């Protein structure tokens, strides 16, 4: 059995689902510009592979302080149609249909990853699972944190729980933050890789796919 594992953001879609969610909330008047400005600073750290994900979760969860789980669920369908549908890579649609079994693993919180994955046609997904208290998400998470080396740990737990032992794991990603997963997989495909990942991909002979 060959298992195909996809990163989500900038790999299957031409954008970042979490950033787009914040943009969506800004347009709804739920967030303000100062949140977006601070978020952009953290995105830059992420792109450099220097983001402290636990600190980012504590910051980003403030975007939801006024929203209950039900209110978030009610917003998701419009978010998917307006923000995600227009940026799905055509190639990704083919991969998802033909490269099965497959799953998505992402450092984005599961309340975004799960509905986006289902919308894309991917049944299995791993994201950051935030703890819920009083019908609201908190900045606490259920380990492991599916970020950097934590993605490998999360995948191993998933495989154990599902009693799966794939002979080959094929991984698709765009980001240097996924280097540990790239090295763990038997085969790696780098989708519009950032400069750091592109350099390593060229050194290691990983497949580079440039999408538009």
TrEMBL record:
<keyword id="KW-0460">Magnesium</keyword>
<dbReference type="GO" id="GO:0016787">
    <property type="term" value="F:hydrolase activity"/>
</dbReference>
<keyword id="KW-0479">Metal-binding</keyword>
<dbReference type="GO" id="GO:0046872">
    <property type="term" value="F:metal ion binding"/>
</dbReference>
<dbReference type="InterPro" id="IPR050582">
    <property type="entry name" value="HAD-like_SerB"/>
</dbReference>
<dbReference type="InterPro" id="IPR006385">
    <property type="entry name" value="HAD_hydro_SerB1"/>
</dbReference>
<protein>
    <submittedName>
        <fullName>HAD hydrolase, family IB</fullName>
    </submittedName>
</protein>
<dbReference type="InterPro" id="IPR023214">
    <property type="entry name" value="HAD_sf"/>
</dbReference>
<dbReference type="Pfam" id="PF12710">
    <property type="entry name" value="HAD"/>
</dbReference>
<dbReference type="InterPro" id="IPR036412">
    <property type="entry name" value="HAD-like_sf"/>
</dbReference>
<keyword id="KW-0378">Hydrolase</keyword>
């Amino acid at each position: 059995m060959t298992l195909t594992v996809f990163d989500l953001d900038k790999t299957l879609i031409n954008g970042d689902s979490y950033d787009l969610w914040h943009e969506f909330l800004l347009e709804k008047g739920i967030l303000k510009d100062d949140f977006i400005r601070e978020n952009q600073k953290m995105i830059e750290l992420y792109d450099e592979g220097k983001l402290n994900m636990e600190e980012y979760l504590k910051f980003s969860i403030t975007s939801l302080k006024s929203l209950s789980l039900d209110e978030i669920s009610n917003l998701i369908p419009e978010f998917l149609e307006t923000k995600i549908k227009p940026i799905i890579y055509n190639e990704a649609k083919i991969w998802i249909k033909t490269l099965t079994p497959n799953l998505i693993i992402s450092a984005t919180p599961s309340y975004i990853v799960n509905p986006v994955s289902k919308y894309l046609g991917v049944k299995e997904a791993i994201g950051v699972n935030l703890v819920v208290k009083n019908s609201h998400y908190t900045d606490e998470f259920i380990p492991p944190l599916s970020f950097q080396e934590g993605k490998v740990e999360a995948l191993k737990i998933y495989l154990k729980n599902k009693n799966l032992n794939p002979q080959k794991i094929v991984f698709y990603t765009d980001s240097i933050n996924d280097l540990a997963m790239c090295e763990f997989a038997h085969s790696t495909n780098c989708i519009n890789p950032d400069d750091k990942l592109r350099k390593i991909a060229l050194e290691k002979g990983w497949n580079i796919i440039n999408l538009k």
